[in-house]
Amino acid sequence: MKKRYDAVIVGAGPAGIFTALELVKQNNLKVLLIEKGPDIDKRDRRSVNSGWGGSGAFSDGKLILSTEVGGWLTEYISESALSKLIDHVDSLYADFGGKSEKFGVDADAFLELHMKAQLAELTLLQVAVRHLGTDKCTEVLKSIYKYLSPRIDIMTGTTVQEVLVKKDKAAGVITDDGTVYESGKVILAPGRSGSQWLADEATRIGLDLSVNPVDLGVRVEVPAAVMEPLTSKLYESKLIYHSAHFDDKVRTFCMNPYGEVTIERYSDNVITVNGHSYASRATDKTNFALLVSTTFTEPFKEPNAYGKYIARLANLLGEGIIIQRLGDLIEGRRSTADRIARSTVTPSLKEATPGDLSFVLPYRYISDILEMLEAMDKLVPGVFTRNTLLYGVEAKFYSQRLKLTSGLMTDIEGLYAIGDGAGITRGLIQASAAGVIAARDVLKNT
After folding, report:
1. Residue intervals in the chain for CATH 3.50.50.60
2. What is the pLDDT of residues 68-97, one digit of tens each?
3. CATH class for domain 2-105+128-210+399-444?
4. Tens of pLDDT, residues 239-275
5. Phi-psi map region of 345: left, alpha, beta (phi>0 left; psi -120 to 50 alpha)
6. CA 433, 437, 440, 442 torsion: positive or negative?
């Protein structure tokens, strides 16, 4: 069977969804959006990375309104152009029910914290943040689905097997049931769960790829009161540290005030740790990730494989996620259920197995993380204590990156690659902005 469309979008994460939102502004376009996971009403925690909304559906719902954080789109468009796009995307989230308080806009409060961070050898980035919460994020995605479903064709539970190319031009896609969907405009937005598929397809059709870093580390859980000096003013604090021993970059990521630690499952049976906060309920704890960024050089070209190897090792030793008290890690001993129970911090992730993260993460990563925690303790005392809980591993997989134009088109005419799966973004806002960029380029060339 063959069907013809003006544009085919692969992946219904933020990048794919916002591509569709922009394309439907031109009423006569026939658009198909294909997603391998379920639609929003059928999703649950077992389909955390696939389905309508992608990883964002069960994320903390933080909209990082910054050109500096959340991706590399300034390598393709100007910073001023990206800033306007971020405002545009932010307004669209608000229109679909995502209006909420904006944090990090008090210049005086930021300056005071920035100076304190400098004294601790930390760099604090100034970013505006709008927090939706996991629960409201799902509502927003349902609202967008309701808007788009009568305007475009949406296929969920359908896997794209191959991208079709004829004479160096996009020609469509083939799905798992053998159906051919012809189109001269194909936008690939497979998300993190589809990054390997995208890399494989790019290699098959002759596109060059470059290697992105891999971020590995732990999720830290402390009493919410410890982080209150930061979270009350900024909500999401973006702190960067360069370790004294190895000179590695360590950063905070995905801070969740009054939130809980959660599990992230990938389709290839890899389990990692994550964290969420909700708009409708709160805990007495705050969690955040500490990630060490590593860029591998020749001859190694598989950073994601390395990251998944580390994650699988934790899954093997802990039957999923490992939890360890900071004091036990420093003393070189495994945490036990009794030791965890004696901690002043009660774990929010009950399924985590007490263990020893030093059997999972290389010494270099452990050393970097301990240094970062000590530095943070100078800024917010109480982080570097024996009762602080560490969960492992947290891993962020960034796809190999394709050569792209300013409109995010590949070297194959009409074929676009966008979002986290294309290795050019790493968050809701820039992934959504990437969709708008690609859609506008499609409209310009249609």
Report:
1. 2-105+128-210+399-444
2. 999 999 999 999 999 999 999 999 999 999
3. alpha beta
4. 999 999 999 999 999 999 999 999 988 877 899 999 9
5. beta
6. negative
